[in-house]
Amino acid sequence: MLKAKLKQPQDRPTSRRDLMAAALSPSPRRFPPSLRSPFVGPDEKLNHFTLKFKSSVHKSHYQPRAKANSCDVRVEIPKQWYNLVADLSVKPPPPLHPKTHKPLNPEDLSPLFPDELIKQEVTNERFISIPDEVIDVFRLWRPTPLIRAKRLERLLETPARIYYKYEGTSPAGSHKPNTAVPQAWYNAKQGVKKVVTETGAGQWGSSLAFACSLFGLNCEVWQVRASYDQKPYRRLMMQTWGAKVHPSPSTVTNCGKKILESDPSSPGSLGIAISEAVEVAATNVDTKYCLGSVLNHVLLHQTVIGEECLKQLEAINETPDIIIGCTGGGSNFGGLAFPFIREKLKGRMSPIFRAVEPTACPSLTKGIYAYDYGDTAGMTPLMKMHTLGHGFVPDPIHAGGLRYHGMAPLISHVYELGFMEAVAIPQTECFQAAVQFARTEGLIPAPEPTHAIAAAIREALNCKATGEEKVILMAMCGHGHFDLAAYDKYLHGDMIDLSYSTEKVQASLAAVPQVVP
């Protein structure tokens, strides 16, 4: 009965979202335009109930969100991931063995990763097919909406057109399941029983816990201490999906114990949490390690964002002039930007790519481009990246997912090639932008994408001053429903800007290995 009310493509089974929409459509009457779902495409032709509003309300306040905001088109979930390395004439420098400092062999990664992920990490193939089992899980929330921020545009009085690709519709509320699901599936396919990982704000940890629950894997997570204390509901999400969660640094690992001996009140960092998870994976034969950002195969998986967005923009005849995303490890930014960089390299468009990072952890804008460890203890391969030094522990800003000492090697390489630019923005400006966004667009963003919103607002106001009608595209990588304590601090005037310490960075950079590959 429900399926009969929907026009479904033959190769796409009815999704949970479509079932919910159909359940709300028993009569030919319609909702007022402002109450229509932003996720319903015109091809679905759903009916809605009628609600009446007082005639004193100006009808322009109730424009259909699907019509006035969402790009309102249905696109297919991508069937392939895109590998930017294939289209780069200058290839990225290879990772090095942490002990020999020689180029890493793929088999050196086998204690940490399953075979298929290792192949994806080192491949030069342009496209990698997405397994049907992974696409089947993606159908729970993909494709994700591309929405035009018309109300924000009106607030700013800008001639610019602002679009955001919203990844907060996933079960975990962020873009992270885009890689958590395939990583869990490849591990389960190889017969792995348990995976371990790190997490900052908790989006990655909760995403991996969710994915592991689908494929019967045990999951153990080390969450950065500052975020463990700030965001208890992320920890409860992980535990609800069956994960075991430790604050990092912890007393469970040798690395954690050493950190706590030198600093019992350490707020932790992603580098420390990675060290703890890698230590456990490397010393247990039945355990593999999963990483939520930085590595090539992670950025590869995230390109479903950009591939979808390309089709959505094409359907409404828009071409972005500038693409903006926050960067911590780089997966969110790379996932949106890489397919567009491909199009720019082919001469089909010419957008500016702008990465936005916190002033408290500015690896691109203040770091050096050098070989460094991906973790604090120096257990991972050496990677050529922009780094503040693997020993750098950022101040506990609320954007816990951006508190990483380095940047993805592929993002760093693209930055060095001049294909993108970067800026750093303090957290109070970011939260000011987030509140403006929430009060116009209705969505409360996670602290991480507030950096992209702040940069987009800067660009929109610049367009207001110049009169340019630019198309601004930004990555809205997740919602902030579990980050309201940070909003509470901002709204009560208790939030302060934390900037990195020059002395701390210099001391950390002094420990970066001197490598001549």
From TrEMBL:
Comp. bias (Low complexity): 21-36
Q: Which InterPro entries match?
A: Trp_synth_b-like, Trp_synth_beta, Trp_synth_beta/beta-like, TrpB-like_PALP, TrpB-like_PALP_sf
Which Gene Ontology cellular-component terms appear in the entry?
Answer: cytoplasm
Where is each Tryptophan synthase beta chain-like PALP domain found? Answer: 139-478
Q: Which UniProt keywords apply?
A: Amino-acid biosynthesis, Aromatic amino acid biosynthesis, Lyase, Pyridoxal phosphate, Tryptophan biosynthesis
Where does the record place the region Disordered?
Answer: 1-36
Documented EC number(s):
4.2.1.20
Where is composition skewed (Basic and acidic residues) in this entry? 8-19
Instruction: Provide a Gene Ontology MF annotation, just one.
Output: L-serine hydro-lyase (adding indole, L-tryptophan-forming) activity
| Assembly, per entry | Tetramer of two alpha and two beta chains.
Give the family from UniProt. Belongs to the TrpB family.
Q: Which PANTHER family match?
A: TRYPTOPHAN SYNTHASE, TRYPTOPHAN SYNTHASE-RELATED
What protein does this entry describe?
Answer: tryptophan synthase
Say which species the protein is native to: Ananas comosus
